[in-house]
Write a structure and sequence with these properties.
Elements lengths: L7 H20 L9 E10 L2 E7 L13 E5 L16 H11 L3 E5 L2 H9 L5 E5 L15 E7 L5 H11 L6 E4 L3 E6 L2 H25 L3
Parallel strand pairs: 6-7
Antiparallel strand pairs: 1-2, 1-4, 2-3, 4-8, 5-6, 7-8
Helix pairs in contact: 2-4, 3-5
The protein binds the ligand CSCCC(=O)C(=O)COP(=O)(O)O and zinc ion.
Zinc ion binds next to loops.
Cofactor: Zn(2+)
Organism: Paenibacillus abyssi
Pfam families: Aldolase_II
C-alpha cells in the first residue's frame, strides 16, 4: 500500500492521538530537555512496507505546534514533502515495527528507567518477580517472572538497531536503552500507553525494592 492510498481520515486520527498522548506525557514531565519520541502506524503492514507518523526531531515536546509530527516510511524517510526532520531515533521505531507489526511506539527518558538500566546492565535485563502490573503485558501467571531487555546506547543510532533485533522478546513489549530511556509498544496507542505506564511503575518498584533490601 502506498502512502497516498491511506485515507486522510486515518492519518488525521493518528495525528490527533499523538497530540493527546504527547500532551499527557508532557504533563507528567516525561519529555525533559526535548527528550522522547512517539509514533503511530497508519495503513496496511508488511515487514517490507509500512508508514507511521512520528514526532519531529529536537522539538520541545511540552509545546503543541502545527509542526510536531511527520509521516515516514519503513526506512524512516519522509513520506511527504516536508521541511521537518523525523526523530533522530526513527530507525529504532522502524525496526520495532518491522519485528512486531505493532500500531504505536512510545519512548521516554525518566530517572527511574535510566537508573535501573545501569544497575542491571551487567545482566542486560531487569528481572521482575511477581509484580501485579506484569499483567498489563497480558502475562497472567501467578508470581510471574519477566526479564526486560537492556541494550547498548550508542551515539550512532544504526548501531543500536541490531541490538534491538537480538534483544527482542515477543512476550515483553519494551526494550530499555542503557542510561537513555525505554521504548514501549502496543497494538494501538491505548495499549502502548498501558505498557509504558506499567514499565515505569515496575522500574520505580524494583529500584525502591533494591534500596529497601540494602536497608536504605
Ligand atoms: C535531548 S535527548 C537526546 C535525543 C533523544 O534521546 C531523544 O529521545 C529525542 O530525540 P528526537 O530526535 O526524537 O527529538
Ligand atoms: Zn531518546
Amino acid at each position: 500500500m502506498s502512502f497516498l492510498d491511506i485515507s486522510l481520515e486515518e492519518k488525521q486520527k493518528a495525528l490527533a492521538e499523538l497530540r493527546d498522548v504527547k500532551q499527557l506525557f508532557a504533563d507528567r514531565g516525561w519529555f525533559a530537555g526535548t527528550s522522547g519520541n512517539l509514533s503511530i502506524r497508519v495503513g496496511d503492514f508488511t515487514p517490507e512496507q509500512f508508514h507511521f507518523a512520528i514526532t519531529a526531531s529536537g522539538k520541545d515536546k511540552s509545546m503543541q505546534t502545527p509542526e510536531d509530527f511527520l509521516f515516514v516510511d519503513q526506512q524512516g524517510k519522509p513520506a511527504e514533502t516536508t521541511r521537518l526532520k523525523p526523530s533522530a531515533e526513527t530507525l529504532i521505531h522502524c525496526e520495532i515495527y518491522r519485528l512486531t507489526g505493532c500500531g504505536a511506539i512510545f519512548h521516554v527518558h525518566t530517572v527511574f528507567n535510566n537508573l535501573i538500566s545501569e544497575y542491571f546492565w551487567d545482566r542486560k535485563s531487569v528481572p521482575v518477580d511477581g509484580v501485579e502490573l506484569i499483567k498489563a503485558f497480558n502475562i497472567w501467571d501467578e508470581e510471574a517472572h519477566i526479564d526486560i531487555p537492556i541494550v547498548s546506547n550508542y551515539a550512532d543510532i544504526p548501531r543500536i538497531v541490531p541490538e534491538v533485533t537480538s534483544a527482542f522478546n515477543p512476550q515483553i513489549p519494551g526494550i530499555i536503552l542503557r542510561k537513555h530511556g525505554i521504548y514501549a509498544w502496543g497494538a494501538n496507542a491505548f495499549e502502548a500507553k498501558r505498557h509504558l505506564e506499567a514499565f515505569e511503575f515496575i522500574f520505580e518498584y524494583v529500584y525502591r525494592w533494591e534500596l529497601l533490601k540494602r536497608g536504605g
